[in-house]
Every structure is written in structure tokens, then in C-alpha cells.
Amino acid sequence: MQDLGSLGGTLSIPGSLDHFGSVRAINESGEVAGTSTLAGDEVWHAFVWSKGTMIDLGTLGGRTSDALAINNKSQVVGRADFSPDSPYHHAVVWCNGSIQDLGMVDPCQNSTATSVNSANQIVGGLGVCTDDPKDPTYFSAFYMVKGKPMVDLNTLITPASDIHLTDAWNINNRGEILANGKLPDGSERVALLVPIPSGR
């Protein structure tokens, strides 16, 4: 057993402080993505642990960031605060020492990336998409692929479903997505999304 350490604080975990057990935080090379508090335990940052070293992945300019998953290309996804004056955060991908803001889908204010596969396909969740937290569409799942804009995953489902997808948790290397959502009566469901073969 090896202690991976911390970024100076007293807490470090695989994945995010808010998403225990729902992420793929280790890749086939043994690299680990996670979140650690800094000295004083009032601020936390995403990290990647690789070859015996824990690296602080930083933020977009705000106070905190969380890493939720890592793929076999050492790409880490999660979220980061983009301003010390804003309560919102954006989905991000860290790659080769740089951070990329993945943005969001209007009118949502928050986005968090939860999974990335080896084809650079990323899924996650959107938040504060309406003014009413009780609105079924206050949260929505998203999908994006490198070089293309982020989209609400609900708009890609064929045929349309009564389930409104609120979060997408994992995407495998075949492009299959594991998500959860709600029916109009408030019942919650797990959903498996399978890509439609090209030409159909």
C-alpha cells in the first residue's frame, strides 16, 4: 500500500469531494486523478498522481477545482471555478499540463465533466438550467467530443424518451453512456445510451 500524499492539506481522495464512488479515477498506467485540500483545508484543487508525484492541476482563475476521471491518454476531466467572484463552475479537461474550459450549454450556469474515453468523448452534467431547483430540467446531462460544442444529451436521443437525463456518469470506449434521469412523475431511472451506427 502506498500513501499518495496530498497538496498540503489533510484530505485527499480519488475523484471529487462531491462525487464519491461514481468515477473512473485510475487508468491502465496506474495514474490517479483526484482532489486534495491545500494547506489550511479551506481550498481544494484537482490533482493527478503519476510516477510517484502528485501534481496540482490548478483552476480557471477561481478558488477550487475537482478531478473526476482519467482516461488511458492521461486526460483528466472535472470542473473548476473560473472566477473568485462567481458561484459557478465549468467543466474542464486537463491535458499535457494545460487546462481547457469546456464551457456549458445555455441557459445553464454550471457544468461538470464526469468521464472521458480514449476517443476524447466527454460526458457530464449541467446545472442551474432554470430558475427553479424543483424544475425537472434544472439539471441536464451533456455530451461533447473534441473540436465540437457541448450539447444537451437529451437532444440526441432517438426516438425521444419520457426520461429527462439529469447526469451522465460514464462513457466507455465504444461510446456507450451510463446516465440517470427522471420520469415526469418524479421517478428516477438509470439509462444506458448506445450510439446509433452510422448510415442508419
How does this model look, in words?
It is a single chain. The chain contains no helices and 15 strands. It is globular, with a radius of gyration of 17 Å. It has a four-stranded antiparallel beta sheet, with no helix packed on it. The chain has a four-stranded antiparallel beta sheet with strand order 5-6-7-8, with no helix packed on it. Strands 9-10-11-12 form a four-stranded antiparallel beta sheet, with no helix packed on it. It has one domain (8-193): Methylamine Dehydrogenase, Chain H (7 Propeller), CATH 2.130.10. The mean pLDDT is 93. The chain is mostly beta strands.
Question: Which features does this protein show?
Answer:
four-stranded antiparallel sheet; Methylamine Dehydrogenase, Chain H; about 200 residues; mainly beta; about 0% helix; about 45% strand
Brief overview:
The chain is mostly beta strands and 200 residues long.
How does the overall form come out from the CA principal axes? globular
User: Which runs of at least 5 residues are low in confidence (pLDDT < 50)?
Assistant: none
Can you list the strand order of the major beta sheet?
1-2-3-4
The amount of helix comes to under 10%
Mean pLDDT: 93
CATH fold label: Methylamine Dehydrogenase, Chain H
- Taken together, the total number of domains comes to 1
The main β sheet shows up as: 4 strands, antiparallel
Could you state the CATH homologous superfamily? Prolyl oligopeptidase, N-terminal domain
**Beta fraction of the residues?**
over 45%
